[in-house]
């Protein structure tokens, strides 16, 4: 088998797994989408490609995570847990309409921003 064919199989398998995960978490992702639909009015940039279903959580990536967290707290989210890691702090937020936590990473001092 050619390397290109093997790579395509790997990409297809990953895409299928991502699709299945998103389907399993569709209700939570849709509820998050409804809440985030007004975020752009506050200057929060949350594009669909920045939202990742992870089974036990949903990760929201953002260029300005502190601003996004502040907006989400005003939008009815609460801080459930904060886990400090080597380069990032994992902020777990909860909302009454979403069953799993929403995770936003904030860089620690000295960590590069994407």
Notable traits:
5 strands; 114 residues; 38% helix; 27% strand; five-stranded mixed β-sheet; alpha+beta
**Quaternary state, please?**
single chain
Distance between the termini: 36 Å
Provide a count of the helices.
3
Helix content: 25-40%
Question: Unreliable stretches, pLDDT < 50, 5 or more residues?
Answer: none
How big a fraction of the residues is strand?
25-35%
Strand segment count = 5
Specify the biggest β-sheet: 5 strands, mixed
Instruction: Give me the side-by-side strand order of the main sheet.
Output: 1-2-5-4-3
The gross shape turns out to be globular
The secondary-structure class comes to alpha+beta
Helix and strand pattern: HHEEHEEE
Mean pLDDT rating: 89
Cα-atom radius of gyration: 16 Å
Structure characterization notes:
- The chain has 114 residues and is of the alpha+beta class.
- It has helices at residues 3-24, 26-36, 65-74, and strands at residues 51-53, 58-60, 78-84, 88-95, 98-107.
- Helix content is 38%, strand content 27%.
Task: Show the helix and strand layout.
Blueprint: H1 3-24, H2 26-36, E1 51-53, E2 58-60, H3 65-74, E3 78-84, E4 88-95, E5 98-107
Parallel strand pairs: 2-5
Antiparallel strand pairs: 1-2, 3-4, 4-5
In summary, what is this structure?
The protein has 114 residues and is α+β, with helices and mostly antiparallel strands. It is built from three helices and five strands; from the N terminus they run ααββαβββ. The longest helix is centred in the N-terminal third of the chain and has 22 residues, at 3-24.
